[in-house]
Write a structure and sequence with these properties.
- The chain has an eight-stranded parallel β-sheet with strand order 31-30-29-28-27-36-33-32. The chain has a six-stranded antiparallel β-sheet with strand order 3-2-4-10-7-8, with no helix packed on it. A four-stranded antiparallel β-sheet has the order 1-14-5-9, with no helix packed on it.
- Helix content is 18%, strand content 31%.
- It is built from seven helices and 36 strands.
- The protein has three domains: 140 residues, Jelly Rolls, CATH 2.60.120; 82 residues, Immunoglobulin-like, CATH 2.60.40.10; 311 residues, Glycosidases (TIM Barrel).
- The longest helix is centred in the C-terminal third of the chain and has 23 residues.
- It is globular.
- The two termini are 34 Å apart.
- With 579 residues, it is α/β, with parallel strands linked by helices.
- Helix 1 packs parallel to helix 2.
Length: 579
């Protein structure tokens, strides 16, 4: 079945935000809220003005355009009334993400506290009333905090570090469920056995969930849980792959609760051919040709102006011949992963870095020297505070839970370039046990501890000549970073990139040489199986995107397609030769 996104042109973030756990009850809370920024946590009755949710107050699209400081409180207030008959037993507030720490009040009562700037959460609104309700969210955010994940946020932007964001930056909505309902579920497709195992978290495990797999609007497979688990035979169904992203709707009925979702039958692994390892999807070796994707937008920072922007960006990248995006130290709304699922775009997902402030000197020399640092030295690695290490593990586990059912997500990166890295081998073991269906780049770039599934190299300032270690898949997980400023489309008066070019012809020539004279030879001699070019778009002071910040392509699209096709052909010829 072909899945197509449906965009509500006259709505504001009105598309259902969570396509893998969808119910008919949907009350959208995106839009205008009252806001104030104060020095006190006392709840307010009067406010500074209106903010457009889900945009952070730092962004133009929010209507506020003001930085929340570490000693300030952001107050967000929304009055609403549910439609008549909406409440079916329980009413649940769902929040995509709030940066960084939030207290949730309803009708003056504190219901929930959430301390994590990137992961979603849900809370039952136990004291909701018929008629008008008052939702109040109190937010604090310290972008310098050594405790919480912060990504690439900073109060003093520059180079590879970007404007700090705060507050609500992903969709917020309300749904209603019966008293007994499905809290969550996990999908385990088994390509080799042609089965799908589903495990459920329900309010009453003794009650069964009825499962129906749909194709062409007909039930083609079905089953019923025993102790919250069911195994469905998928023989005869087509697999999912980047070239043929076949997905199937699946429905769950649990008493009076009905949930819609979808899945793809696929397998991510690495295979040994000759003396080297290669990435494989459905047991077939594949070259993953990707771009580094920061997920920043010029007018909304962490949030695009609409869901359609997310879809069109992924679709355009796919049309240029790339088949992978590395989501760099950021978590997107659930719909972004859905768009990757339906378009056949493989996802590499970074965990969120944190810890104390990193040494600028060490970051500057890392591209030239692969330092042999001990990541068990917590002080050296900026993880001296045990709360920071505990919070990292908590956030990483939440992220895996959130994205577990994503069809296109092939690989996780727990640590990047030593930023707050600690106990990389131990954390790899813990995370890979939690989700063994994915591969792991345990320490992308610099401080390699020999674990994980990839020998992951970042090479910017010299010719790429990494060698396979014969134990893991060789990847160029960051390289390139070529810079070109396009007149009238500069994102900043400042300039930052790794190699600068004066015009599109010079950039195109260098880009082509990079792939033909470095990537293709590495495929043939070292079994290179993936590349991540830096990067998708210009971001603030960085002007090294293949697109400008506002979407102008710097290299002719047909040329990029030609280059990417030749790289794929070189990989296929290499595999045929050694098999």
């Amino acid at each position: 079945m072909i899945f197509k996104p449906e965009f509500i042109e006259n709505g504001f973030f009105s598309e259902y935000p969570r396509p893998q756990l969808k119910r008919q009850s949907f009350f959208n809370l995106c839009g205008e809220w009252d806001y104030a920024i104060t020095k006190t946590s006392d709840l307010l009755v009067s406010f500074d003005g209106k903010i457009l949710v889900p945009f952070c107050p730092e962004s133009k699209l929010s209507g506020v355009n003001r930085q929340l400081k570490k000693d300030e409180f952001l107050h967000l207030s929304k009055h609403f009334a549910l439609p008549q008959g909406f409440n079916r037993g329980r009413v649940i507030l769902n929040v995509g993400a709030i940066d960084q720490c939030a207290k949730i009040y309803l009708n003056g009562k504190l219901l929930f506290e959430h301390n994590d700037g990137y992961n979603s959460f849900s809370v039952e609104l136990e004291n909701i009333v018929e008629g008008e309700n008052h939702l109040y969210i109190l937010v604090t955010d310290d972008a310098d905090s050594p405790i919480y994940g912060r990504g690439k946020q900073t109060y003093k932007r520059g180079g590879i570090w970007y404007t700090a964001t705060s507050g609500i930056w992903q969709p917020v909505w309300i749904e209603s469920v019966p008293t007994d309902y499905i809290k969550g579920f996990k999908l385990y497709p088994n390509f080799d056995n042609q089965t799908l195992t589903v495990t459920f978290d329900t309010t009453d495990p003794q009650k069964s969930v009825y499962v129906s797999v749909i194709d062409q609007n007909q039930i083609v497979k079905e089953g019923q849980t025993d102790k919250n688990k069911v195994v469905i035979d998928l023989k005869g169904l087509k697999p999912w792959s980047p070239n043929d992203p076949q997905l199937y709707p699946i429905k769950f009925n649990y008493g009076n609760d009905a949930v819609e979702s979808y899945f793809g039958l696929r397998k991510f692994s690495k295979v040994k051919i000759g003396e080297k390892y290669y990435f494989a999807i459905n047991n077939e070796p594949i070259f993953l040709n990707g771009l580094l994707d920061q997920g920043y937008f010029p007018d909304g920072f962490y949030t695009p102006k609409s869901n359609k922007v997310l879809y069109e960006q992924v679709s355009q990248v796919k049309s240029l011949g790339y088949n992978m995006l590395r989501k760099h130290i950021k978590v997107e709304p659930d719909l972004w992963y859905y768009y990757c699922d339906i378009l056949g775009m493989v996802v590499w997902q970074d965990m969120i870095n944190g810890g104390a402030k990193y040494s600028p000197v060490r970051i500057a020399i890392m591209p030239f020297i692969r330092l042999k640092l001990k990541d068990t030295n917590y002080k050296l690695m900026k993880r001296a505070d045990p709360r920071s290490r505990e919070q990292y593990v908590l956030e990483a586990n939440r992220l895996i839970d959130r994205l577990f059912n994503c069809v296109s997500l092939q690989l996780y990166t727990p640590f990047n370039e030593g930023w707050g890295q600690f106990d990389a081998v131990k954390n790899y073991n813990l995370l890979s046990q939690k989700d063994s269906t994915r591969l792991y780049d345990h320490a992308s770039g610099w401080i390699d501890k020999g674990a994980g599934d990839t020998n992951s190299r970042h090479i910017y300032f010299r010719k790429a000549r990494p060698k396979s270690d014969g134990k893991r898949v060789l990847t160029l997980s960051e390289f390139g970073g070529y810079s070109l400023r396009v007149a009238g489309h500069e994102s900043s008066p400042k300039k930052f990139g790794y190699k600068r070019f004066k015009n599109a012809d010079a950039l195109t020539k260098a880009y082509k040489n990079l792939y033909y004279n470095e990537v293709v030879p590495l495929i043939k001699t070292q079994g290179l199986s993936a590349t991540v070019y830096t990067q998708l778009t210009d971001v603030e002071d960085e002007d090294n995107g293949i697109f400008t910040y506002d979407g102008v392509l710097k290299i002719d699209g047909n040329t990029l397609v030609e280059i990417n096709n030749k790289v794929e052909k070189a990989f296929k010829e290499h595999i045929e030769k050694i098999m």
